[in-house]
C-alpha cells in the first residue's frame, strides 16, 4: 500500500485539516502514528483524530490550525538560516506548548 | 500593559491533574495492556495509535510513568517466556541437539541441515516479530520513554525489551532439564552450516544472515556499547575457534597431499570465500579476524614448507615461468610476512643456483673441449709465447671467448627471466628486487672472470654484434650489459679489460660504430661515475686529436714542398701513455726485464718517422714520442712476377711488423732467402711478434706471401724464408691478419696472472690514496672506523681485501704519512 500524499488531521472539536504527509510528519507523534510498518489504523486510513485529553490538551481547531501552520512553516524553512519568527499570539502560547509536547514537535 | 493583560488571559494548564483518581491508572493500564497484546498478535490495524498514545500520555501525566514502565516490562517478559520461547524451542529438533561434533555429521547432514534451517527460520521470525512489536511499543510509549528514560536514566523500553529477549529466549534452556540454551543451539547450527559450505555444499545464507543480524542487534549490557554485541561476545569467538581448527587440519592435509600450486590456489580461494562469507553470511566485523586466522593457520604455518616443496615449490615455478602461481604465492606470503622471507629466500637461492649453473656451464665449455693438437692446419698458428704451446692454446682460447659471450648471454637471459617474474609475479616488490640483485651480484662475482667476460661481450658486440641493428636495439643491448656491470663488484678490473679491448678496437679500427662506443661510455658514466670513464674518454680524445694531427701533418708536408711521390702516407695515433692500457704501451720488452732496442724501420719508413717526429716536436715542445709498431697496420702494393712472366698485383694489408719484414725482401734478389735469425738481426722485432708475423706470412695457407723451408707449422730460428712469387689470391686486396694477435680474447692463465698482479698494484695505490684522503680530513681516526670509511669509499670501484688495506696502512706508517697515536683502541693520526 503506497502512502497517500495527503493526510487528514482532525481536531478535538471536529475541524479537519488536510496537509501533505511529509509536512505532518514534522511531528514525531504523527510520524509514528502514520508509520506503515506498524500498521495502526491511522496508517491505513490516513486520518488522525486528535482527541482532547480531559482538561489537559485541547486540540481545538484554532490550536490545530496554528500547529498545521507551524508544520508548513517548518517544512518551508527547513534548510534555511535566519528564518523570521512565526507570529504567535500570547493567548495561544500555552496551548501550543502543550500541543508541541504532546505531538513531539 | 498589553503584556500584562495578555498574561492574565493565560490559564494555568494542569490544574485539576492532581485530582485525577488513582483508579484511573488501573483502568487505563488495563486497556493499554489489552492493546499491547493485540500488537503482539499482529492486530495493530484495529487499534488507534492516537488512542494508545493518549493513554500512555495520561499515565505519565499523572506521574505513574514508572509503574507503566515496569508493567510493560512484565507484560513483555511474560509474553516472551510463554509464547516466543515455546515457538522457538518447538522448532528445535533432536538432531540439532545430538552431536556437538560437526565433523562426523556427514551422513546425517541432510537431516540436520533441514532441521537447522527450520530452527533458524523460526528464530528469525521470532526475532523479526519481536523487533517489529517492540518498535511499535516504543512508538506508542514514546511519551513514557521520553519522561521515564531521561529523568531516571532508565534504558529505553526498546533496549529493555531487547535484553528481555536475550535473557528469556536466547538464554533459556532448550528443554527444562538441559543446560543447552537456544543460543548454544544457534551457534552450533550456524557453525554446522558454515562447515557444510566450506565442504562445498549450498546453504541458505539469508537464514544465517538474519540470525547473525539478531546477534548483532543484541547487547550484553543495556548501555549497548559496540563491543558488547552478542555477536562479538559469543558467536564470533566460537566461529574463529572452529575456523582455526578447520584450517589447521586443512593446511596439514594440503601440505601432505597437494602440490604447491594447488595449495596456493586453494588458499586464495579460501580467502575469497571467507571474505564473501563475512560479507553475505556473517558480519563484516569478522572479516579481518577470520582472515587473520586463515593467515595464521593456513598460510603462515605452511607457506615456507609449500615454497620449498620438492618438485612443485617455488623452484619449480621459477623454472617453468609459472607466473600466475608464483604471483599467488607472493600474495599469500605477503599477507603473513611483510618481508616475504620464505619466498625471498627461495627466489634468492634459485637465482644463485641458476647462476652457478651458468658459471659451471661456461667453465665446462672453456675446459671440456680439451685441445686436440694438430687437428687442423689452419688453426696451427697463434698462441702467445712459445710456438709449441700455441697450437694447443689457440683453440681453447677461442673456445673460452665463446664461453665468455655465452656466459654473458646466459646471465642476461636469466636476468630477463627474473625481471619478467619480478614484474609480473612479484608485483615489482622492492625487497624482492634487492634480494634478486644480491643473488645476481653474488654469483656473478663468484665467477672470477666476470669482468673480463663482460668486457669481451661488449667488445664482441661493438665489433660485430651491432651490425645491422637499429639504434634502439643497440641501446637495449648496451643497457643489458650495463645492468650486469652494476652487479660486478670489481669495477676497476672491468675498467682495465674494457680499456684494453677498447684500445684494440680503436687502433685497429675494428669498432663498427663510434656512436655506439660513445653511447656506451655515456652509459657507463651514468652508471659508475665520472672517475671511471675519465681515462676511457681520454682515449677517445687522443683519437680525435690524432686525426687532426695527421691532417695538419699532411698539410705541412704539402707546404714544405717535398713532392716525393714515393712517399708513403702516414696515419698516426698519438696516445697519452698514462691513459692507455699499459701492456700495449710498454710492449713485451719490459717483461723479460731487459732493454729491447727499438726495431729498425726500413729506410722509407724511417725517414717518414723522422719527418713526423720533427713536425710533432715543433708543435709540442718537450714531449717524447715512442713508436709502437706492434699496434700498427700498413697497406702495401706488392708485385708478384710469375714464372710465366705475367705480373700479378695485390694490395696487402699487413701489420707494421709484417710490413717491415716484407720490405726486407725488396732488397733480396729472387731465389735467395733470409733466415729467421737474419730477419731478426735486421729488424730487431721482438721474438714473439716476429714469430707470429712470420707465421701469418709464411704458414697460413691463404696468405702465404713468403715461403718457408722446411715447410712446417713451427717457426724455428734456423728456418729460411723465400719470397713467394707464386702467391695467388682471388682478391686484389688481401688482408693478412696477425695470428691471434689482433682479436680480443679471453686471456690465458699467464696473462691473467699478469693482469691480476697489475690490478693489485693499482689497487694498492688506490687504497693508499683513499686512506690518505680520509686521514687528511679527519686527522685522527680509530682503526675500525678508518677501515669502514676506506671500504665505503672504494666500494664503487672494487671490494678491497681487508688484509691489503691493513698492509697499506702499515706501509703508510713506515713512510711516515701516518702515526699510531693510541694502542687501545688502535688509533692513527695524520702527519702533515
TrEMBL record, chain A:
Alphabetical list of SMART domains matching this protein: Skp1
Keyword set, alphabetical order: Nucleus
DNA-binding found in the keyword field: no
GO BP of this protein: ubiquitin-dependent protein catabolic process
Positions of the SKP1 component POZ domain: 6-74
Location(s) in or outside the cell: Nucleus
Assembly and binders: Component of the SCF (SKP1-CUL1-F-box protein) E3 ubiquitin ligase complexes.
Family as reported in the entry's similarity comment: Belongs to the SKP1 family.
Function of the protein: Essential component of the SCF (SKP1-CUL1-F-box protein) E3 ubiquitin ligase complexes, which mediate the ubiquitination and subsequent proteasomal degradation of target proteins. Controls sulfur metabolite repression, probably by mediating the inactivation or degradation of the metR transcription factor.
PANTHER family referenced in this protein's UniProt entry, alphabetically: ELONGIN-C
Name of the protein in its database record: E3 ubiquitin ligase complex SCF subunit sconC
Organism the protein comes from: Penicilliopsis zonata CBS 506.65
From TrEMBL, chain B:
Domain annotation Cullin family profile: ranges: 449-698
Region Disordered, residue ranges: 368-395, 742-762
The entry's keywords: Isopeptide bond, Ubl conjugation
Basic and acidic residues bias locations: 373-395, 747-762
Cross-referenced InterPro entries: Cullin, Cullin-like_AB, Cullin_CS, Cullin_homology, Cullin_homology_sf, Cullin_N, Cullin_neddylation_domain, Cullin_repeat-like_dom_sf
Pfam families xrefs: Cullin, Cullin_AB, Cullin_Nedd8
Any one biological process term the GO annotation gives: ubiquitin-dependent protein catabolic process
Record's GO cellular component terms: cullin-RING ubiquitin ligase complex
Alphabetized GO MF terms: ubiquitin protein ligase binding
UniProt record similarity statement: Belongs to the cullin family.
UniProt name for this protein: Cullin family profile domain-containing protein
Amino acid at each position: 500500500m503506497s502512502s497517500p500524499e495527503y493526510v487528514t488531521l482532525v481536531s478535538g472539536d471536529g475541524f479537519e485539516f488536510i496537509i501533505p504527509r511529509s509536512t505532518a510528519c514534522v511531528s514525531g507523534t504523527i510520524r509514528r502514528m502514520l508509520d506503515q510498518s506498524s500498521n495502526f489504523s491511522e496508517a491505513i486510513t490516513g486520518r488522525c483524530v486528535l482527541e482532547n485529553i480531559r482538561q489537559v490538551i485541547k486540540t481545538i481547531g484554532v490550536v490545530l490550525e496554528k500547529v498545521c501552520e507551524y508544520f508548513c512553516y517548518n517544512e518551508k524553512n527547513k534548510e534555511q538560516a535566519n528564518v523570521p519568527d512565526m507570529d504567535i499570539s500570547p493567548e495561544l502560547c500555552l496551548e501550543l506548548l502543550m500541543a508541541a509536547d504532546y505531538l513531539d514537535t | 500593559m498589553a503584556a500584562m493583560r495578555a498574561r492574565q488571559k493565560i490559564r494555568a494548564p494542569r490544574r485539576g491533574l492532581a485530582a485525577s483518581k488513582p483508579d484511573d491508572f488501573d483502568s487505563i493500564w488495563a486497556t493499554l495492556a489489552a492493546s499491547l497484546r493485540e500488537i503482539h498478535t499482529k492486530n495493530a490495524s484495529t487499534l488507534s495509535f492516537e488512542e494508545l498514545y493518549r493513554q500512555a500520555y495520561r499515565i505519565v501525566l499523572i506521574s505513574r510513568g514508572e509503574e507503566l514502565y515496569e508493567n510493560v516490562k512484565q507484560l513483555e517478559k511474560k509474553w516472551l517466556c510463554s509464547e516466543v520461547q515455546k515457538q522457538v524451542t518447538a522448532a528445535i529438533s533432536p538432531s540439532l541437539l545430538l552431536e556437538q561434533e560437526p565433523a562426523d555429521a556427514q551422513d546425517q547432514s541432510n537431516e540436520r541441515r533441514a532441521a537447522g534451517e527450520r530452527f533458524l527460520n523460526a528464530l528469525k521470525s521470532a526475532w523479526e516479530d519481536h523487533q517489529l512489536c517492540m518498535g511499535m511499543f516504543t512508538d506508542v510509549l514514546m511519551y513514557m520513554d521520553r519522561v521515564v528514560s531521561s529523568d531516571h536514566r532508565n534504558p529505553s523500553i526498546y533496549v529493555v525489551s531487547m535484553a528481555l529477549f536475550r535473557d528469556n529466549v536466547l538464554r533459556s534452556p532448550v528443554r527444562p532439564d538441559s543446560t543447552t540454551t537456544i543460543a548454544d543451539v544457534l551457534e552450533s547450527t550456524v557453525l554446522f552450516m558454515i562447515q557444510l559450505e566450506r565442504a562445498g555444499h549450498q546453504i541458505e545464507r539469508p537464514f544465517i544472515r538474519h540470525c547473525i543480524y539478531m546477534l548483532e542487534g543484541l547487547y550484553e549490557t543495556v548501555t549497548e556499547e559496540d563491543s558488547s554485541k552478542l555477536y562479538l561476545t559469543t558467536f564470533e569467538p566460537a566461529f574463529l575457534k572452529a575456523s582455526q581448527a578447520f584450517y589447521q587440519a586443512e593446511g596439514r592435509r594440503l601440505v601432505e597431499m597437494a602440490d604447491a600450486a594447488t595449495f596456493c590456489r586453494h588458499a586464495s580461494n579460501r580467502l575469497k570465500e571467507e571474505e564473501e562469507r563475512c560479507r553475505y553470511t556473517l558480519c563484516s566485523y569478522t572479516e579481518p579476524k577470520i582472515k587473520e586466522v586463515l593467515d595464521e593457520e593456513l598460510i603462515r604455518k605452511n607457506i615456507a614448507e609449500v615454497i620449498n616443496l620438492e618438485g612443485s615449490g617455488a623452484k619449480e615455478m621459477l623454472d617453468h615461468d609459472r607466473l600466475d602461481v608464483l604471483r599467488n604465492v607472493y600474495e599469500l606470503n605477503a599477507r603473513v610476512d611483510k618481508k616475504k622471507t620464505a619466498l625471498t629466500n627461495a627466489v634468492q637461492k634459485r637465482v644463485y643456483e641458476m647462476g652457478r649453473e651458468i658459471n659451471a656451464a661456461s667453465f665446462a665449455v672453456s675446459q671440456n673441449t680439451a685441445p686436440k693438437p694438430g687437428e687442423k692446419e689452419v688453426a696451427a698458428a697463434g698462441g702467445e709465447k712459445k710456438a709449441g704451446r700455441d697450437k694447443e692454446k689457440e683453440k681453447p682460447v677461442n673456445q673460452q671467448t665463446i664461453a665468455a659471450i655465452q656466459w654473458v648471454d646466459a646471465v642476461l637471459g636469466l636476468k630477463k627471466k627474473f625481471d619478467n617474474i619480478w614484474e609480473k609475479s612479484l608485483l615489482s616488490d622492492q625487497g624482492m628486487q634487492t634480494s634478486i640483485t644480491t643473488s645476481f651480484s653474488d654469483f656473478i662475482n663468484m665467477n672470477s672472470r666476470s669482468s673480463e667476460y663482460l668486457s669481451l661481450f661488449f667488445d664482441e658486440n661493438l665489433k660485430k654484434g651491432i651490425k645491422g641493428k637499429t639504434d634502439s636495439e643497440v641501446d637495449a643491448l648496451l643497457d643489458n650489459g650495463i645492468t650486469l656491470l652494476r652487479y660486478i663488484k670489481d669495477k676497476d678490473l672491468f675498467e682495465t679489460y674494457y680499456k684494453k679491448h677498447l684500445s684494440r678496437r680503436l687502433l685497429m679500427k675494428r669498432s663498427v660504430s663510434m656512436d655506439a662506443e660513445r653511447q656506451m661510455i655515456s652509459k657507463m658514466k651514468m652508471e659508475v661515475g665520472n672517475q671511471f670513464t675519465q681515462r676511457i674518454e681520454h682515449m677517445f680524445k687522443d683519437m680525435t686529436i690524432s686525426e687532426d694531427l695527421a691532417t695538419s701533418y699532411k698539410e705541412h708536408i704539402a707546404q714544405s714542398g717535398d713532392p716525393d711521390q714515393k712517399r708513403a702516407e702516414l696515419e698516426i695515433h698519438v696516445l697519452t701513455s698514462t691513459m692507455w692500457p699499459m701492456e700495449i704501451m710498454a710492449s713485451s720488452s719490459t717483461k723479460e726485464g731487459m732493454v729491447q732496442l727499438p726495431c729498425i724501420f726500413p729506410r722509407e719508413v724511417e725517414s717518414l718517422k723522422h719527418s713526423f717526429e720533427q713536425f710533432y716536436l715543433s708543435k709540442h715542445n718537450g714531449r717524447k714520442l715512442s713508436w709502437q709498431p706492434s699496434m700498427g697496420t700498413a697497406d702495401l702494393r706488392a708485385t708478384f712476377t710469375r714464372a710465366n712472366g705475367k705480373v700479378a698485383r695485390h694490395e696487402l694489408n699487413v701489420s707494421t711488423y709484417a710490413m717491415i719484414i716484407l720490405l726486407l725482401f725488396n732488397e733480396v734478389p729472387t731465389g735467395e732467402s733470409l733466415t729467421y735469425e737474419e730477419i731478426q738481426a735486421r729488424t730487431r722485432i721482438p721474438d714473439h711478434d716476429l714469430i707470429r708475423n712470420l707465421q701469418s706470412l709464411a704458414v697460413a695457407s691463404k696468405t702465404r706471401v713468403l715461403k718457408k723451408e722446411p715447410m712446417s707449422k713451427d717457426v724455428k730460428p734456423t728456418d729460411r724464408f723465400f719470397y713467394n712469387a707464386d702467391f695467388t689470391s682471388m682478391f686484389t686486396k688481401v688482408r693478412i691478419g696477425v695470428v691471434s694477435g689482433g682479436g680480443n680474447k679471453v686471456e690465458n692463465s699467464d696473462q691473467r696472472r699478469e693482469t691480476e698482479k697489475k690490478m693489485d698494484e693499482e689497487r694498492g695505490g688506490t687504497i693508499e690514496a683513499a686512506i690518505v684522503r680520509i686521514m687528511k680530513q679527519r686527522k685522527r681516526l680509530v682503526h675500525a672506523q678508518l677501515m669502514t670509511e676506506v671500504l665505503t669509499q672504494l666500494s664503487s670501484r672494487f671490494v678491497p681485501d681487508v688484509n691489503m688495506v691493513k698492509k697499506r696502512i702499515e706501509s703508510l706508517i713506515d713512510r711516515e704519512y701516518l702515526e699510531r697515536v693510541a694502542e687501545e683502541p688502535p688509533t692513527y693520526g695524520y702527519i702533515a
